[in-house]
């Protein structure tokens, strides 16, 4: 297994640990910043999420730089990304930090675009990530990281930055999803 695939596999293996830290009610204490309480376990889970999200860039960097792109990596990398985002969203919904409808919008778009890519792949076509999709990912990861930290990085200013990022992620999720389907509607022609 090459280095990028090892990094991606490590990202997948971080997900259950992340879920345990976020959802199992350990009584490890908490710290408070500007009136916002952050359990130590949630802090550890957020740091693990940030590390896992950063490995997405890292494995891609090594795969491109050293020409280590593999079929396994092409399969596992997007799967790892979706599993990580799903785990974070479900944790935040369970903790009643993010409304369930936001998670449904984001996950529905991910499943729909993945399905479209599978249909395209069966016909030998590749659908690359659009610029809008890349911005969607940036805002999703920012929103999830800040919300997993209970908005503590911005608590002193009393601005709901995590939810602002989440709203931006939801809007970009919808816009990029529509963009994918409009630009790639040819994928479904002849199959309907």
Automatic annotation (TrEMBL):
<feature type="transmembrane region" description="Helical">
    <location>
        <begin position="83"/>
        <end position="106"/>
    </location>
</feature>
<dbReference type="InterPro" id="IPR043130">
    <property type="entry name" value="CDP-OH_PTrfase_TM_dom"/>
</dbReference>
<dbReference type="InterPro" id="IPR000462">
    <property type="entry name" value="CDP-OH_P_trans"/>
</dbReference>
<keyword id="KW-0443">Lipid metabolism</keyword>
<dbReference type="Pfam" id="PF01066">
    <property type="entry name" value="CDP-OH_P_transf"/>
</dbReference>
<keyword id="KW-1208">Phospholipid metabolism</keyword>
<keyword id="KW-1133">Transmembrane helix</keyword>
<feature type="transmembrane region" description="Helical">
    <location>
        <begin position="43"/>
        <end position="62"/>
    </location>
</feature>
<comment type="similarity">
    <text>Belongs to the CDP-alcohol phosphatidyltransferase class-I family.</text>
</comment>
<comment type="pathway">
    <text>Phospholipid metabolism; phosphatidylglycerol biosynthesis; phosphatidylglycerol from CDP-diacylglycerol: step 1/2.</text>
</comment>
<dbReference type="InterPro" id="IPR048254">
    <property type="entry name" value="CDP_ALCOHOL_P_TRANSF_CS"/>
</dbReference>
<keyword id="KW-0444">Lipid biosynthesis</keyword>
<feature type="transmembrane region" description="Helical">
    <location>
        <begin position="12"/>
        <end position="31"/>
    </location>
</feature>
<keyword id="KW-0472">Membrane</keyword>
<keyword id="KW-0808">Transferase</keyword>
<dbReference type="GO" id="GO:0008444">
    <property type="term" value="F:CDP-diacylglycerol-glycerol-3-phosphate 3-phosphatidyltransferase activity"/>
</dbReference>
<protein>
    <recommendedName>
        <fullName>CDP-diacylglycerol--glycerol-3-phosphate 3-phosphatidyltransferase</fullName>
        <ecNumber>2.7.8.5</ecNumber>
    </recommendedName>
</protein>
<keyword id="KW-0594">Phospholipid biosynthesis</keyword>
<comment type="function">
    <text>This protein catalyzes the committed step to the synthesis of the acidic phospholipids.</text>
</comment>
<feature type="transmembrane region" description="Helical">
    <location>
        <begin position="163"/>
        <end position="182"/>
    </location>
</feature>
<dbReference type="InterPro" id="IPR050324">
    <property type="entry name" value="CDP-alcohol_PTase-I"/>
</dbReference>
<comment type="pathway">
    <text>Lipid metabolism.</text>
</comment>
<keyword id="KW-0812">Transmembrane</keyword>
<dbReference type="InterPro" id="IPR004570">
    <property type="entry name" value="Phosphatidylglycerol_P_synth"/>
</dbReference>
